[in-house]
Every structure is written in structure tokens, then in C-alpha cells.
Amino acid sequence: MFQATREQSLGPVEEDDLISGEHSDAPRDLEPGRVQGVMTFAGHLRSHLSLVLQLLCLLLCAVLLVAILAQVSKVPSCHQQVPSKTQEIRRDVMQLKAGLANLCRPCPWDWTFFQGHCYFFSKSQRNWHDSVSACQDVGAQLVIVRSDEEQFFLQLNAKSRGPTWMGLSDLKKEGTWHWVDGSPLMLSFMQYWNPGEPNNHQEEDCGEFKNNGWNDDQCSKDKFWVCKRPTAPCEAA
Q: Quick one: which of 113, 102, 188, 183 has its CA closest to 148?
């Protein structure tokens, strides 16, 4: 009886659902056609994503290849001749010498510049007359002292070498001192004679730098000497 009553309460639609085996509460939008469309779209999406990833991988590989080729091109070929360190130093020295040779300077390399003049301090020794000639041969004079500053400069350099001839003598007249250019010794310079000098001991007629001042000595003795000449605008190498 209960079964009969239930069957009578079911409407036409519910009967159809029961016959078809589908529950009335199942969603009506999940129809077979729609499900098939969703699955097809998902498949296409996965296919496109895979293609994009492949293209990105190819692009990354291409960039890496270009970077590697660029670095390799910077490496010198093993066949290129790379100069040794010695060759580089020799080349730099030659360039330096060439540059120095073209420098414009007021005095030659082995001369000393002081207050507009060039001075040559000899490394060998000669008598007074030969010293005069040696200076003349290079266009200079055996040194003539013209100022207190010059005297200090000359005395300091001569003292480090030893007794050194200057261009001063009383050969023409005993006791009357003249420079090699004929000019007389000024009285203000008499202060530079060492104590007790000049004494003309044994015909001492030529002046020299000795110790802290001047001394007269025999002109025939060999001593160092100093040449003096004006500066030049540009001295040849």
C-alpha cells in the first residue's frame, strides 16, 4: 500500500527521471556537449603553453650563444705575436730618449744652471793655463765671480770636489788681480780670501777655491776647474 501511495504522488516529470536513472537534484548545466567543450579548451591551452615554453627556451639558448661568441671574439688568437715585457720596456726607453733629445733646455746635460748662467765643474785636473783653454774650447770662460750669491754657489760646489781654479790671476802685475776678461777684482770681493791670502808664496799667481774661501797658488799645478757661459735658448742634444 505504501508503494502504491508513493507511485501515485510522483508527477510525470519525476517518473521520467526515475525511468532515465537520473536524480532530480543533479545539475542541469553539465550536459555532455558542454563538458566536451571544456575538455577541448583545456587541451588547446596546454598545447599553447608548451609551445610558448619551447620558444622561450630557444630564445634563451640563442642569447647565451651570442654572448659566448662575443667573449670568444675578444680573446687574441694564439697566432698573434704578443710582445714580451722586455720588448715593451725597450720600446718605452727608446721613446723616452727620443722625447728627452727634443727637449729645449738652457744648459747642456753635464752643466749646472744657476741664475741665468751655465757652469761646468770638471772631473779631471789641469794647470791654470790649460783650464783657461779648456773653457774657451767650449765657448766659455774660466769662471768669473760677479755676486755674493754666485760666490756662495761656487764655493759650496768646489769644496765638495777639492781645490778648483777660478779665472783670477796677478800674472800681469804682482798684487794686482784681474779676471780672465781683463776686469779688475773689486775691493768688495777681497773678503773672500782665506786668512793670510793671497801671500804669493813661491810665485803663486793664480786664484783658486779652497776650503771656505780663496787662495793663490802656483799656476803650474793641476787642479779641478770651473767654466762659465751664458744660457742658450735651446741646447742641442
A: 188
